[in-house]
Structures are given as structure tokens and as C-alpha cells.
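Troubleshooting log. The previous run stalled partway through. Resubmitting the same two chains, unchanged.
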Amino acid sequence: MKPLRMMVVDDSGLTVKKMSKLLEELGHTVAAVATTGQQAVSLYAPTAPDIVTMDITMPDMNGIEATRCIMAENPGACIVIVTSHGQEQMVMDAIEAGAKGYILKPVKKEKLEETLETIAGKYL
Amino acid sequence: MNASMLESALLQTHFDVIPFGIYVMDVATYELVFVNRHFRDLLGATEGGTCHKVIYDSDTPCLHCRIPELLTPEGMPNGVTAIYDHYNERDERWAQLQEKTMGWPDGRVVKYSIAVDISELKETQNRLAEAHAELAIRNRELSAQNRILQENIELREHVERIARHDLKAPLSALVGLPQVLLDSYDLPESATAIVRLIEQAGHSMLEMLNQSLILFRLETGTYVLSPKPVDLMDLAQRTVGRLAGLPAAHGRTFQVTFAGRSPRPGEEVGYPGDALLLEPMLQNLLLNAVEASPEGGCVTLDFRMEPDRLLLAVSNAGEVPEPIRARIFEKYVTMGKRGGTGLGAYSATLAVRAHGGRIELDATVPGRTTIVVTLPRSGDVTA
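Second attempt completed without errors. Output:
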């Protein structure tokens, strides 16, 4: 698959580091990192990433709300939720907000690769 | 060793024998007061550091911290036990945490937390949640596709409705004016023939438009059947006469029979129905049959009258391909013939249903295709 420009959104520096490493191993570039939902919304347009990985639990604005805001302004945005929350309602809220993928932590490289490939194949 | 130190040592000994990780922290400062042997083996000597830094590698208190739920408004232990699952980004493990506040022997209010590793259990649950999410995403995509399809269908119907309405007005000139030309001018024979052709073409187009309007009313459920006596034998013979002149019927023949024998002169097959639906129904079934028939083949139409029903069987040589047999009466399904719209059998089906009848494909005889139409004779026909 062609290299993607990625944006990683997570308030945990550890996760950002691990996710960036995984993405780079898969041949993609991390074009921007946001550590809050609000920051993700502000950074999305100027960064114009191919795909965003979005955490849910973050200070100021959570990932579902941030997804909703980004989708409202950019209906073609591709956002994958990467979270530790697997509860049904949380999943449904994220999908309803416009997420195009949902991965649970700890992130497995194969799952991440498969999800990115599916989204790139369908939408990019 | 004073009493408080003794009590503290006893507690620590007690926590050390528990085979799960336990830490005790000062609720006011987040300072780790004690970690049991299990955690010590994993994390080393950590007392004095803050819980969020040592356990979660975070410089600030955790967003999920439950201390506020475990204290009275005065900051004292409230007896509540918080139990929840938590994912630790530092070691990428899942734990079920059981937390409670208490008074530590040295007088501080502390929270103790027992962490049971549930990573293996979570692995299964998480795969299930991911599969659930994938299904939800596909459902959403399917709904979006269905919505677009529905919008396209509605748009097409809207355009068709307008086209039908708008086409009828100019057609009236095409149908009416040729007669005026013929009556008012002394046209040479060749011109008269051309004018007649124009008139016939206009009538054909008008008929098609009327059929199309009826089809629309049948599809949208706005058609109401008003049965009138129809002689189906006469309709069939006239339809066959018309079709026999078409290029598609070249080298093929038609045979209309009653209960397998040739009809007697003037023999009628009376049926209370709508000729505007029954005639095109016969035409569509016979046309499909002749188009599917090999050269030299004979298309037969047999009427059979039973006490409570009338049977029509249109038969031709050739077989409907197996993959489309089950869908042959659906809209836009064609048998692969060039220029086929897939509307003929569908339109015939709607006409049959409007009379309360049914239509079936009989492919039991190898090498032959028979369409059997059953029309009720009870008189209780419904649209």
C-alpha cells in the first residue's frame, strides 16, 4: 500500500511514541501529533492527513467529540478510533460520530495495518 | 518499634502474601507509601515516588483517578470500594482494579489498590468489540449506499413522470395532424404512405406512453382494476398477427390453441379484466418467447379454462439460463438479449398481479421454456 500521511491523537506520550513507531514501521509518516481533542480539531485542516488515529479519553475534548467536529468540517476525513474502551455504547457513539475504524489497545501491528489498508482502499 | 510501626509492618506483611499487585498511596500527595512484594518484583523499590509516575509513567495525576469517589467531603475514607478495568499504557496490560481508602497507621489517609491482571480475558473481549465495530461500520456504509440508491430511484421516477406528461402533449399533434394532411391535400401515393407511417409511429409511441403510465400506477399502487369483458382469444390472435411481422419473428411461427386444439371459428375466451393490461401482457410474453426461440421454432399460446381459473401457457424452444430463473420476473432482469430492458416479464407480472393472478416459469421440460399465467375466475379480482 502507498505511504500515508498520518495524524496521531493521544494524551499519553507513551502511546504516541509507540503508535508513531508502529506507523513508521509500516512505511507511513506521522505528519502531526495532537494530545487533546481540541488540538486535533485545530490541527486537522492545516495538516490534511490521510488518516487520523484518535484516542477517546483525553482532557478538554474527548475523541468522539473531536471526531464529530472534524467530520462536520471535513466529511471525507478518515478517522480510526484507537482506545481502551470496548463498551458497546462507546463503539456505537464513535461509529455514529463518523469513525471509519475502531481498534482496541494494546494495538496489534497486523490489526493496524489491516484497518489502514481497508480504509485507504475504500476512501483514499 | 512503636505501635504504629508495628501495625504498619503487620499490614505490609499481610499485603505481601497476596499474589496480586497492591500499592498504597497518600490521597493528598499521590506519594506511594507502600507496594507489595508482587509489585516490588515488577517495579523495584518505588516508595516515595508518585503513583501516576511510577505505575502509569504519567507526569500528572491520571484522568481515570477514582480518589474523589472514595472520600467524604471532609477528605476521610467513605467505605466505598471502586472496581473497574483499566488499561495501562506503560506495560500495555489490562488490570481489574479494586480500590478503597483507609487510615494508614501513621495517620495519613491512603488509598490501596489491588490490581489483577486480566489481559488474556480482555484480549477475547476486545476482539469481539472490534468485530462488533466492524459490523456497525459496514452497516453504516450499506445504509448510505441504500440511501443513494433510493434517491436515484426516486429521481428516475420523477424524471420519467415528467417525461410521460410532457411527451403526451406534442404527441397529440403527431397523431392527429397526419389525418389533416391526408384530408386537406392531394398527396401523391408515396407521400401518403409516409404520412401513414408517421401516424402509425405516433400511435405506437402514444400506446407505449399509456402503458408506461399504467406500469407506473401499478408499481406505485395507485391502479384500481375495473374489470370489463375481454375476449382473450381475439386479443391473442391480433397480438400474434402484429408480432409475426416483426424482424425478431422472422423464421419463427406462432400457434394459438384452446386446451391443446385449434380454436373453432369465432371461439371466444371471455375473461373479466382490463384489456389495457392484458393485451400488453400477452404481447410481452409472446415477444419474449419469440425472441428466445431458435430460428424455425414455434411459439405456442394455449388457453385452458377451469371452473375457478383460466390458464395461459406461452411456450418456446430454448432454456432460461439457470442463474436467472429465480429472478426472471424481477425488474431489469434480462435473459442477455441485446437491447433487452428487463421490463417485459416484469410488466406482465404486474398486470397478472393486478388481476389477482400469478405467473410462473416452468422449466421442467428440458430444452423448453413455458410461462404459465393463472388468472382467477372468482370475480373477486383485486388490484
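Takeaways: The CA atoms of residues 12 and 35 of chain A lie 7 Å apart. Chain A has one domain: 5-119.
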